[in-house]
């Protein structure tokens, strides 16, 4: 299922429509589904709140209909989540996630070595989609790592999950995407630490951790110096960045700093209502035309920070709504991380993996501005919350 989010919109319409109809039918006809869904209400409420606020922003700023298209998709996943109230075969889903990581990792390798693409971008998008693709792939890698560590995973499937980690991680390194790879490190470390503390199986976790770290460092430092060069260039780009339009921002870091400066300026001018959904590009071009911003950012439509994006679009209220979208699932999953039932704790860990990656990547990139990353977040976070609700609903009282 996660693979459908990485392909074109046309290919994922049918499965999404079927799941949506199934979710609606379950909510309408199955009382147990409604009871299970209520156990996950905080996460669903946070997602619904963001939809309501975005719709109010759309009406308040009198925007064109395309501006509300992406937020409206939240309704789709609020219904789809009901499917997770059923006793699904989780091994099939877990295998699907690892196969997705294998396929996308192989696609990155094929694009790099067979097509000569400098920064692989996966099955959807173009050169500009490398960062988004890397984040998607690294989430699949982390979820595969979780399955490789779990003591209940059959040995034949454990090797599949390990292969997915290796191939997927190599493909992610090929994208040279600094933000997602830097976000991956603390989330991966947290996953290994949690597993060691929760299961007491230290050896398996530490061996996998050591192999992963050594492998990443070896590949990055020897075969692909581009990633090292991109990291080394950060201080120079920061130092050379000038404050104002007279000094053109150069490089990815310089352009980000210029976009962040312009976004902060837009927020200061409209701290309560913002300037409207998807209006940063219009504002930035106006600043460039007025000689108040570098021409290097004229082609960008988002400020490469989800937090700044929300502040520009809707001011302080929109930022608070975004923080709730992240914080509520973090608390929901965090409270179940030490649950005595291993499947519940594993689902909680998976949920924290997803939210953690989005929270960290959101500092330097827009993680909810396109259908693919938003769909993945809503599908996994809502689905895992309902899955935990189902398991808790069927837990016999002590």
TrEMBL record:
The keyword Lipid metabolism does not apply. It is found in: Membrane. It comes from the Bacteria. InterPro entries: O-antigen_ligase-rel_domated, WaaL-like. Its main location: membrane. Pfam families: Wzy_C. The chain crosses the membrane at residues 12-29, 36-53, 65-84, 91-109, 129-146, 158-175, 181-198, 205-223, 311-332, 344-369, 375-392. One of its GO terms (molecular function) is ligase activity. GO terms for cellular component: membrane. Keywords: Ligase, Membrane, Transmembrane, Transmembrane helix. The keyword Protein biosynthesis does not apply. Residues 163-323 form the O-antigen ligase-related domain. It is a multi-pass membrane protein. PANTHER family: LIPOPOLYSACCHARIDE BIOSYNTHESIS PROTEIN PA4999-RELATED, TEICHURONIC ACID BIOSYNTHESIS PROTEIN TUAE. This is O-antigen ligase domain-containing protein. It comes from Rhodanobacter denitrificans.
